[in-house]
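Can anyone check this?
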Amino acid sequence: QVQLVESGGGLVQPGGSLRLSCAASGSFFSINTMGWWRQAPGKQRELVAAITSDGNSDYADSVKGRFTISRDNTKNTVYLQMDSLKPEDTAVYYCNAKDVLLTTRARLDAWGRGTLVTVSS
């Protein structure tokens, strides 16, 4: 059992910055990959960035160079630093944990409830 709680969303002007956080809690040993996805109205949910337990990361082309994902394994927390924000970044951002090893030895994936990011003048 694992719970993900996002925070840090809000309203920001184009060109501004925002930092999202996602804290994982529950009865688990490890999380293989943590990432951020986003979904805007009428669009498919898309992967924004992901990071493995050993620190390797990947980004969507649309955010590369502007966003930075990081992870603190001691705190079971993943972050997304978003700089040079554009109106097209507006979406609900979801935290995802992939391949969570529970203390029961079962494995599962988990999603947070999402946090809204609005980029507008």
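Reply from J.R.: I decoded it. Residues 4 and 24 are 5 Å apart (CA to CA).
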